[in-house]
Structures are given as C-alpha cells and as structure tokens.
Amino acid sequence: MVLRYRKKDGTQMEFELGERPITIGRSPEADLVILDDKASRLHCGIRVWDGDFLLKDLRSKNGTYVNGQRVEMAKLEPGDQVRVGSCVFSFETDPGKGTQTILREVADEMAGGKGYSTMLKEIVEDSVDEEAVEAVEEVAPEPAPAPGPKRETEITAPHAAEAPTLPSTPRRVVKIRVRPSDKK
Fold first, then answer.
1. 0.70 cut: is pTM over it?
2. What is the DSSP annotation of the chain?
3. Which residues contact 18 (CB under 8 A, 6 or more apart)?
4. Which of 7, 15, 107, 130 lies in the 20 to 30 Å Cα band around 171?
5. What's the rounded Cα separation, in Å, for the pair 175 and 92?
6. How many CA atoms lie within 13 A of 148 on its CB side?
7. Is the CB of residue 1 less than 8 Å from the CB of residue 93?
8. First-to-last CA distance in the chain?
C-alpha cells in the first residue's frame, strides 16, 4: 500500500507502507515529514493490524480527516483521502512506477530490438478491452470515373508542370469506435 501526495512545489510523492508503523507530522522525528503549519509535530500514525491499515490521530490540534470526516481512528480502504493539515494523501493499493523506472524499461526494450511502433501497439492492445471494439461502418471507395474518348491535345507551357492523375488503388476502409470498458 502507498500514500500518494503532492508537495507544495507540485512534485508527486509516494510513501510505501509496510508492516512497520509510521508517523506523519512536521517533526523531523516523524517517518513522513510534511512542511505544513496546520500539521502537528506528530499528527497521526498508520499501522497494520490483522491485515488492515489503521490510522490514528495522535491528539493533533487541527484533527485528521478521512474522506472529509474528522476521525480519531479509522480503517483505511483503497481510494481513501486522508487530510493532515492542508496536505491530502491518497491511500492506494499499488505503487505506481516512477518516470525514471518507465524510461529505463523503455530503453531496455528498445536495446533488446523492440521498435517504437511495436511498443505503441502493445500499449493500445493492453488498454483496449476486446469487447469494447465494434465496427461502425464500412466505406467503399468511390468508383474511378469512366475513361473518356481519347483525344490528342497539345501540351503548352502552363500545363506542362501538372502531373497526370492516376486512379487510386481500391481499398477497404473500416472505422472503429472504442467504448470504455465497464470493468474495474
């Protein structure tokens, strides 16, 4: 489990939670130090108890809030929003990959011979649920105009630069619409 939050400068931060209890507050002795005047020195704590993550307010002056409700103690669920002072933490199940990790993985795949186009196709395939794709319409190409009678024409200077128009190769065009999946 992780706590995600943004620092005042806009930097996205993550704090991974484990079996060890942690404290959150302004004090340098806190495990997760936040620079917020509305937070107490040791504002609240989070610990694992019987497989659940429990949050406890440590007698903070301004209170600890979970999903907008002031709490003394609360069992945290994925997606919960925890407010300490003016800092809001999101309690999430999986740690997201950082930018450097993602860039390193992409570089490793490209070094292994995988091309950019292949990686994009994989991303699209991973993000599109097979049930969410449906053919909307099939469009046939317009027929080429019938050739007219042959005439001999004289090419003059203004028309000499124009290229002749060639009939296009017939092809089939299918438009696809992707619907977002209802599964979560």
1. no
2. -EEEEE-TT--EEEEE--SS-EEEESSTTSSEE---TTS-TT-EEEEEETTEEEEEE-S-SS-EEETTEEESEEEE-TT-EEEETTEEEEEESSPPPPHHHHHHHHHHHHHTT--HHHHHHHHHHHHS-GGGEEEEEEEPPPPPPPP------PPPHHHHTPPPPPPPPP--EEEEEEPPPS--
3. 48
4. 130
5. 38
6. 2
7. yes
8. 18
